[in-house]
Specification:
By secondary structure, the chain is mainly beta. The protein has one helix and eleven strands. It binds zinc ion. Zinc ion binds next to loops.
């Protein structure tokens, strides 16, 4: 993973859906979210402007899922089920993109990922009424000298 990289080719697991994307803040924008949907989905997401993501193949395989306020638009591949991106409720000019779909990027490349406070969405409460980050998820790769405890 090259943390300064902003331009990526990307695809779902089966490869039916392919896209190219420019990440606004590179991989530094990596986040998870604790809302009811993201908690189940479990993806690390990065940020792109809506105009900076282009579906290059398989747009017909994308399925749209919406719930609750029906504002966010969550897309996934209807063939392999993998989440590719969603249009944000908090900023409809932005997409969240599944970091795991990016060529050369793994969710386990991120040692620490902030978790957004999505259970109490920023759009549903007064500004500054609580923290926007609920916590952090950490990943420690095993080292070669690992032994069972
Ligand atoms: Zn697929």
């Amino acid at each position: 993973m090259n943390s300064g990289q902003t331009q990526f080719q990307a695809s779902c697991h089966c490869g039916a859906v392919r896209f190219q994307v420019r990440l606004t803040e590179g991989l530094g924008s990596a986040r998870r979210c604790n809302c009811s949907y993201c908690s189940m989905r479990g993806a690390v997401a990065v940020t792109a402007a809506v105009g900076d993501l282009t579906i290059t193949a398989g747009e017909e395989w994308l399925t749209l899922y919406q719930f609750n306020t029906m504002q966010a638009k969550h897309y996934f591949c209807s063939k392999c089920g993998i989440y590719t991106h969603h249009q944000r409720r908090s900023n409809p000019d932005e997409y969240s993109v599944n970091a795991a779909c990016l060529d050369g990027v793994s969710p386990f490349d991120f040692p620490e990922v902030p978790v957004n406070e999505g259970r109490s969405h920023p759009c549903d409460r007064p500004a500054g009424s609580g923290p926007d980050i609920a916590g952090y998820l950490r990943y420690f790769p095993l080292t070669a000298d690992w032994k069972p405890r």
